[in-house]
Amino acid sequence: MSGHSKWATIKHKKGKTDAARGKLFSKLSRAITVAAREGGPDPLMNMALANAIEKAKAESMPKDNIERAIQRGAGGAEGVNYESIVYEGYGPAGVAIIVEVLTDNRNRSAAEVRNIFSKHGGQLAQPGAVAWGFERRGSIYVDATRYEEDDVMTAALDAGADDIVQDGEQFQVLTEPSDFAAVRDAIVAAGIEIDNADLTMIPKNTVKLEESDARKTMKIMDALEDSDDVQEVYSNFDIPEEVLEALAG
What we know:
single chain; 249 residues; alpha+beta; Arc Repressor Mutant, subunit A; Alpha-Beta Plaits; 3 domains; four-stranded antiparallel beta sheet; 9 helices
């Protein structure tokens, strides 16, 4: 599991302040609306929408908020047209960073992302400079202290998972994007609670960071994730878990 994956899981477990959760709900709502607009309001026929809804549910987003976001997308809400943009760059110590944005103002988003990279010792790169080092995968986390590896493995592999790896107190189940929903649902059906599940970008190689560079990297990651237009941020850093815990604290 890459350092970024562990960082995301640690923050998920610690929860969020009300202000941060409000911003998160806004981003989740935007993703649902765009998915419903582009692929239709039926999650059974629209995988992107189904995944966006599941992610919202995992963050305890109220059902009414989810339904309103779907309705906005299905009704083609006037006045707001979002476009998806991917930025690539390098952070402190040369870590690779991919930033996925949904925005109604390309110029605003570009300026903000560029400013964040510059302010925190990073730099934007040309399209493709970083993306080759990642692959799109389904990623599902299960608490290894609560469940046996054989039980997780049986449920996941029978449903089409590619691999299961253990890192400390967690199992990470990896799938192809097309198998993600089936594997996730099979794990839940087996009575196994999921800590976190998402379609993500998994780095092919990682960059190990010492504490000094780790702190700098966390600052640029948090600044990017705090941006209103940024939906997802992926990176290939690897930091010892005890350092991550200290930084998260």
